[in-house]
Write a structure and sequence with these properties.
mainly beta, 45% strand, seven-stranded mixed beta sheet, single chain, 78 residues
């Protein structure tokens, strides 16, 4: 696991004001907590060290919304 900056693509754009800190897991999922919300997304590794992208336009599903226990399963697997 490593701490990363998470940037989001929405409407084909990245707005740096939306960036959040997150934890990148070895399976490519990233956990974020910001704006009083938490989420678990598929991460796309960027060419910038310590930065990942979540593409909300293309498959940016937030996994914990449908099954909050997915985070527990993810942590137990490490």
């Amino acid at each position: 696991m490593e701490k990363v900056i998470v940037q989001y693509v929405y409407g084909g754009q990245i707005d740096k004001m939306d960036n959040e800190n997150g934890i990148l897991f070895p399976n490519g999922k990233v956990f974020v907590a910001g704006n009083s919300e938490i989420g678990l997304y598929n991460a796309i590794i960027s060419d910038k060290q310590g930065v990942v992208t979540v593409d909300l336009d293309n498959g940016g599903e937030e996994y914990m919304r449908h099954d909050p226990e997915v985070l527990i399963d993810l942590l137990a697997a490490i």
